[in-house]
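Tip: read the tokens left to right.
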């Protein structure tokens, strides 16, 4: 009975936390002022997040693309299917690796900064001061960061696709001797424009989710220096779990029941 009680408490705590994040995200977006200054603030947050995460995304995705090509080619040469290397690598990068890993990098690099920033504002009582002035801190501060994350995520996903394909090309053609023409001629035969649009749309959803999670974690942080670090850690863990689970659920819904067929 103690095991079931503990499982029930964990389930209720998870549902309460998820409900708080959803409520916080929705109210922040609804309260986001539609003024020109806030549009500039949202664009600025998107550019800050994209510039902060661009290099880490490239450094993470390019080697993964290279390792994908290495492991795939080792198996394909056994069966004489070397021609299928490029379509397979590009399809996996576009559908799975780029959106998933790009969002994870945004969670770890940009999400932690968002949570720490809000936790610091909570500690210094600046959020309380905004409320005293009759302004909504969620719409004024959290909204632009949530929308900025949703705008930056597809940009970083496009960069991740290029980096991943470049890594696969470098490993296959430069490192393993696959004919350049063979790789380039077949690289896009495994995907359709719909795959690219779905990949970009997924990252928008990931950006909204992780932005709301990280902003909520910082917004509700404890008023202490330890609370700042705890909020950043909690935001990173929760947003990474969200991205991985959401990526699995979305991919299963789209590709799972038809085997990934175009």
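Filled-in amino acids:
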């Amino acid at each position: 009975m103690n095991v079931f009680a503990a499982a029930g408490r964990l389930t209720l705590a998870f549902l309460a936390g998820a409900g708080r994040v959803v409520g916080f995200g929705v109210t922040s977006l609804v309260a986001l002022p539609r003024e020109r200054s806030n549009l500039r603030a949202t664009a600025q947050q998107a550019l800050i997040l994209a510039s902060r995460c661009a290099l880490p995304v490239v450094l993470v995705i390019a080697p993964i693309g290279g390792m994908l090509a290495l492991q795939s080619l080792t198996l394909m040469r056994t069966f004489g299917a070397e021609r299928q290397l490029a379509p397979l690598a590009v399809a996996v990068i576009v559908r799975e690796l780029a959106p998933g890993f790009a969002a994870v990098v945004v969670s770890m690099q940009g999400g932690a900064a968002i949570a720490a920033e809000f936790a610091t504002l909570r500690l210094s009582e600046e959020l309380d001061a905004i409320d005293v002035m009759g302004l909504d801190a969620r719409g004024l501060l959290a909204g632009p960061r949530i929308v900025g994350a949703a705008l930056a995520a597809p940009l970083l996903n496009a960069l991740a696709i290029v980096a991943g394909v470049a890594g696969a090309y470098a490993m296959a053609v430069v490192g393993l001797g696959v004919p350049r023409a063979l790789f380039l001629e077949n690289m896009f035969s495994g995907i359709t424009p719909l795959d690219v649009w779905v990949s970009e749309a997924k990252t928008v959803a990931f950006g909204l989710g992780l932005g709301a999670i990280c902003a909520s974690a910082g917004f509700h942080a404890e008023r202490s220096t330890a609370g700042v670090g705890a909020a950043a850690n909690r935001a990173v863990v929760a947003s990474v779990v969200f991205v991985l689970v959401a990526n699995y659920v979305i991919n299963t819904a789209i590709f799972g029941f038809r085997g990934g067929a175009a």
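The chain has a mean pLDDT of 85. The chain has eight helices and no strands.
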